Amino acid sequence: MRVLFDELKDLVNEIDALESIVGLLDWDQEVNMPVGGIEGRSRQLAIQARLAHEKLIAPAIKHLLTALKPYQDTLPYDSHESSLIRVTRYLYDKASHIPPDFQARLYEHLGKSQTVWLKAYAENDFASVRPFLEKTLDLSREYSSFFNGCEHIADPLIDLNDPGMTVSTIRHLFKEMRDQLTPIIKDIARVQIPPCSSLTKFSPELAQLSFGREVIEKIGFDFERGRQDKSTHPFTVQISPGDVRITTRVNEYDFWNAFSSTVHEAGHALYVQGIAPTWNGTFVAHVASEGINESQSRLWENIIGRSKNFWHYFFPRLQLYFPETFANISLDTFYRGINRVQPSSIRTEADEVTYNLHVIMRFDLEIQLLEGSLSVGDLPEAWRQRFQEDFGICLSSDREGVLQDPHWYDGFIGGQFQCYILGNILSAQFYESALSTYPEIEDEIRRGYFGTLRAWLKNNIHFHGRKYSPQELINRVTGKAMTIEPYMQYLKTKYYDLYNL
Ligand code: ZN
């Protein structure tokens, strides 16, 4: 049996390497590639994705999984071998529904769509990317059609990123959140906190990048096993365990933009850099789900990166980096400025409270597109209308609306946004658990020490990679299923204090 297991592991190593090359091609496309590379790159992506997929659904894997079943049944659930077989079987079962030709068509299309979006975004030109989005919608529906018997057309797309979640469970969760969020937003709206004008004063790009680098090194990002570049939309990609890349974008008149995205992406990178080396080259050496992944980035970006304790340590450093911009304001003014609740058009720049409404809106629109009650042609207007209803803001361009996020242009329509709310919810649930074991974490952060929190996250979450399902992991780490209570409590405590309510 050991021989068969090693055979399976060798095959998995090959497939994982092929898949990681897709990630490298994608990173290069977003960071370096000239626009003229679009045709060639789409073809390269298509061939690479098809090769990886063909190898995964080949009879060899199926035979090995069948032959190894009796062996797996004798192993403890937690063991290395059992976990590797279990995760491989899970991914094989899912992938075996998808024809390799589909995978090639999908990646070829998304390669082009992404580049067309970059130009459309820069020029505020939805019309040019509309046919690509229409095709993406067709491909998203086609993907879903490979899975018979699901309750909703979006379920297979959601399951791809957040295993175990469905339209029905997410709708329930989002309703619960909206019901609790609405009174908080109303209460906050009664009080005005003036904007902190220093945040939009000139902050040189080089200093922004250097300060961001200092902060993420301090919280634990390993530059020996990662790097940071610039891209239109910030993202993280895992090329291999020793090569985890993050990107940011810089606006010299908006300090918080690059800073928050740097800390956010570093949160993702810490997750991947923290996976146990024993899983290197296997399917286990990946995040458990996008929701869990976002819990890590949102934890560092918001719960830590927008906290008073964090800035108690870093604010004097910030003032040294930007004497012209921040030297003459108090920590309190800065803290209130970065936490000011103000409806705004861009999701990634939203405050912690209204952020959730951005996500719920995108989720609802995705569902309408997939169900066919909304057409791609009507999407920009539907976005504007819904935004007006939810935020009371009249959008002046599609750049501030439907063009702002890359998700629908470089991936499926469906299943792409729920992870951000799951991430918010879980960030608070995990942090509550960490604090109950190590109450000293908050004092340590105040002193600029992040080791206890980082070690807790690594040992309890990062280390396991995809060994456990998201639900198993949440239960193991917090002793209960996912619940929105800690997150709502976190928001209430923080913002009612900040707004003197
Ligand atoms: Zn993220």
Give a description of the structure.
It contains 22 helices and three strands. The longest helix has 30 residues, at 2-31. The protein has two domains: 2-123; 169-199 and 286-498, Neurolysin, domain 3 (Orthogonal Bundle). The termini are far apart. It is globular and about 70 Å long. Helices cover 64% and strands 3% of the residues. Strands 1-3-2 form a three-stranded mixed β-sheet. The chain binds zinc ion. Zinc ion is lined by residues 264, 268, 294, 297.
Q: Classify the secondary structure makeup into a structural class.
A: mainly alpha
Looking at the structure, what is the overall shape?
globular
The number of strands is 3
Q: What small molecules does this complex bind?
A: zinc ion
State the helicity in percent bands: 55-70%
Task: Report the uncertain regions.
Answer: none
On the 0 to 100 scale, the average pLDDT is 96
User: Looking at the chains present, what oligomeric state does this protein adopt?
Assistant: single chain
- In angstroms, what separates the terminal alpha carbons? 64 Å
Count the domains: 2
Summarize this, please?
The protein is mostly helical. Helix content is about 65%, strand content about 5%. The radius of gyration is 23 Å and the shape is globular.
What's the structural blueprint in terms of helices and strands?
Layout lengths: L1 H30 L6 H19 L2 H16 L5 H16 L4 H24 L2 H20 L9 H7 L5 H23 L15 H15 L6 E5 L5 E5 L2 E6 L6 H19 L16 H15 L3 H14 L1 H4 L4 H8 L16 H17 L7 H13 L15 H4 L7 H20 L3 H6 L4 H10 L9 H9 L6 H14 L3
Parallel strand pairs: 1-3
Antiparallel strand pairs: 2-3
Helix pairs in contact: 1-2, 1-3, 1-4, 2-5, 3-4, 5-6, 8-15, 8-22, 9-10, 9-12, 10-11, 11-18, 15-16, 15-18, 18-22
